[in-house]
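Might I ask for a little of your time on a matter of protein folding? Here, with my thanks, is the record as I have it:
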Amino acid sequence: MHKTGITRFVSDLHLSAERPDLTARFAAFLADTAASKITALFILGDLFDAWIGDDDLAQPFNAEVCSLLRKLSDQGTQLFFIAGNRDFLIGDTFAQAAGLQRLTEVEKVGAGETAILIMHGDTLCTDDTDYQAFRQQVRNPAWQDSFLARPLAERRAEAAALRQKSRAATKEKSQTIMDVNAEVVRQALITSGCRRLIHGHTHRPGCEQILLADGTDGVAERWVLSDWDSHRGDALEVSAEGSIRRIDQSGE
């Protein structure tokens, strides 16, 4: 998929015009990515707090983020993007302008023992049945075509209403329901043949070992990225040899 070298992964930045502090931290992260000669950067969803369509690219804040990404791409870092639950409407127009390649919702990076399974992570949270029903609805091409046909102002208001509804629903759900389903994680690793998984979405950074028990007695690792907010944020860096380290991006 990309040249061998140092690779970085980041997720859940939730960038918005209302949070210039996050945009500044992201700009600094991209500058460091270029200075560190990183071969590839993978953004695993929720780059934006909301994306209502590529026809909103001219909006100054959206254009600013696009320009930051394009600068990194022009400096030689390959950029890859997996859609999250906030920015699944990012399309080819944005991708071409930003100099990034859109990926499918589940991808494999590398090969052999160091191959890594990557995704946003929301598909692993199968116990949250209300969210999965919503996800199925908004990922339907017919729903997306209908939404994108509406005026920008209407879409912007609808996105704000959906975020408010999501925050209210989150308060009513248990932490267990909103986390990944362990068996779904195990099966995804077994099916992919990978022994390492990187994802975001849950906002619960960490690393855990998983016993696969797939006939090989294999042990896998699940690495979870943090979201970016006040006093928190991170990235994962994978060396050319395959070792993983977490990079603090909290701004502190």
Observations:
- The domain at 7-248 is CATH 3.60.21.10 (Purple Acid Phosphatase; chain A, domain 2).
- DSSP finds eight helices and eleven strands in the chain.
- Residues 57 and 216 are 48 Å apart (CA to CA).
